[in-house]
Amino acid sequence: MARLTLDHLAVAAETLDAGSAHIADTLGVELPVQGEHPLMGTHNRLTGMGPDLYFEMIAINPAAPSPEFPRWFNLDAFSGPPRLTNWILRTDDIEGLLNDLPDGFGTPIALTRGDLAWRMAVPKTGVLPWGGWAPAIIQWDCDLHPTQTLPDSGLRLSRLTIHHPDAVEMAECLSPLMPRDTAQFMPNETKKIVAILDGPDGQKRLE
Questions:
Q1: Rounded-to-integer distance, Cα 37 and Cα 45, Å
Q2: Ramachandran region of residue 7, left (φ > 0), alpha (ψ -120 to 50) or beta?
Q3: 168 membership: H or E segment, kind and range
Q4: Is residue 21 a contact partner of residue 28, using CB atoms and an 8 Å limit?
Q5: How far apart are CA 89 and CA 34, in angstroms?
Q6: Which of 39, 162, 146, 152 is CA-nearest to residue 90?
Q7: Burial (0-12, 13-18, 19+ Cβ within 10 Å), 164
Q8: Cα–Cα distances in angstroms (integers) from residue 77 to residues 29, 55, 66, 125, 140, in the given order
Q9: Number of helices followed by number of strands (H, E) in the chain
Q10: How far apart are the first and last CA of the chain?
Q11: Enclosing H/E stretch for 170
Q12: Could you read off the pLDDT tens digit of each residue along the chain, which spans 207 residues?
């Protein structure tokens, strides 16, 4: 049985408005739901991509106090145009899974927002393994999942590819834990995440 399932994709941006404009231009969709993460000093906008997957655009919240530790997704070091920076996998046993994964995936931090409760593994440095290109690990500690309340954008993930010099090593570590074809790992000196999405207006590419 798979121990990890793709939960959501995250685009980082310097500001929510810049990220939203990029998503509207690239994918042709709006991000209608906004939330905040006071513990991390970040905020986000969201939309659904079917029954099991959603999309997040995240940025540092300039109105929130800065945390005394590095923010998740290495957002403290983020600069430049909005881009797809993270893929997030969910599990039903975050503690057990982290014990079996290589060092560096982080320590579970408990968060809540409204009816949602979850734990996210966050590295002390804010940087995930393989230079930040490893998936973040999440466990939902509630009966509700964001996809149950988010509007459906009409987008559906067709293919997710992780381009990285250590792609073979990443695949050997992660592929046995995920359903087949969750992600493809492509050896490449240029590090990037590429999502191919099908939607009402045809196929879109996000990276």
A1: 11
A2: alpha
A3: helix 167-174
A4: no
A5: 21
A6: 146
A7: buried
A8: 27, 22, 14, 11, 27
A9: 4, 12
A10: 30
A11: helix 167-174
A12: 569 999 999 999 999 999 999 999 999 999 999 999 999 999 999 999 999 999 999 999 999 999 999 999 999 999 999 999 999 999 999 999 999 999 999 999 999 988 999 999 999 999 999 999 999 999 999 999 999 999 999 999 999 999 999 999 999 999 999 998 999 999 999 999 999 999 888 999 999
Q: Which two tokens stand for residue 142?
A: 């509630």
Residue 184 C-beta-side C-alpha neighbours within 13 Å: 11
Is 124:106 a contact under the CB 8 Å cutoff?
yes
Place of tokens 């997957």: 53
